[in-house]
Amino acid sequence: MDSQQSTEAGWTRTLLSSVSVAFFGCLISSGYNIGVLNAPQEILMKMSNASAAHDFGVILDATSLDLVWSAVVAVFLVGATGGAMVGGAVADLIGRKLSIMVIEIVLALSGILLFIGYEKEHVHWFFLGRIFAGFGTGLTSTVCPLYVHEVAPPRLRSALGSVTNLGFCVGLLLGQILGLPEVLGRADTVQYLLAVFLIPTLGASAMLPFCPESPKYLLINKGNEQDAFAALSRLRGLPQEALSSELSGYRAEAKLAAETPCWTLRRLLADAVCRRRLLVLLLICAGQQFSGVNAVFFFSTAIFQRAGLSQSQGALASLGCGAANAALALLAGPCVARVPLRRLLTVSCLGCAVCLAAFAGALCLMETYVWAAVCAVVFLISYVVAFASGFGPIPWMLGAEMFEQGPRALAVSMGSATIWVSNFFIVLLFPVMYAQAGVACFIFFLVCCLLAAAVAHFHLPGPTVEGSTVKEMEAVQV
Prior knowledge:
The protein is mainly α. The chain contains 23 helices and no strands. Residues 464-475 have low confidence and may be disordered.
């Protein structure tokens, strides 16, 4: 009976508060920072020119302004990569809960710097703010999946694994909405647009002291059994006597961790099982960014205009795609919990490949046939559905699911860093690829989707990750 109670433990007020702190304070704020600059790009470029004039006495031409904007994008991704790479070490050193506080401080500093940079027309403060925003986002992409995975009960663990992607998607959508000229996307209100995410960040930081630390971190990393079991009891809403099954599993994992030396990158690569798992993780994480998702959204507004919509209507239709992406990210949680992971990811990747092929064909025919633009819209929306159903959320949660407590933080760090590095290369390469190859560049993304589908189908275990045993995970082959 005790074992059944532990297994069936679900939502409690403490669990909801803990997940909400990560979701609103870190994930939504990070997602917001990823996309908030798209709408006010022209306004911010004018600010950069004004800053160069009064700070350095130079007037930037169009090429120089493009370089400045590319640098604004690049420093965010460099910061995100750095944050992701150190996130695991930070989470193991100071704990998951305190790491979330660090993230919220970093994000708050970024909001203040961005506000001051625009208000005072100092582009160097703006750059510094984007670096802090990127670093906080990178930390978020590592720490939050760890914390949510470790506080979630077994029954909800897979479903809550999609929280990372959901938070990023909701944040992106909020950035799109608030960036509209009718809201905060005007020259006299952009400073507030850049800093409004401070509201959920500071609100969540006020709630954080009342949330428990990860029980697994307390027991396995710190060896504090009393605090670990007290935290677990709070999270499950059950007395410790009713958690005997989960507690015994924690003790067994702690005993195993105590008998093994500290996990480093060198040791992770030297271990044959972990090395195979890590390679699978990195391939899938890289594949997510090389799937063409950024390229598809890049075309979205232009495609909607070709289908007969005005410029403002096309922008709103693109906003609708963002809303659909966020809604599908919400639905991905139940899918991940119910559908075998290998099947879900494989079907999602294959769906993306098919939609890309059809989308590229429609783009080629748009110059000749009016109906091709309508088909392109349909294929674009179909691609968003296929991506959000599996390829979007799964890479963010995969590292936490595939690895035990010892190497988990390091593996999640490497997976997140791979996503940001891949994003960086796509941002740099896609304009060049499209200029040189045109629509044919989608063939490259299509092949990447097919390769990711092959990796998922042949190198992930059959059951859902939640139900996978250690032996099943060790069956991952390369």
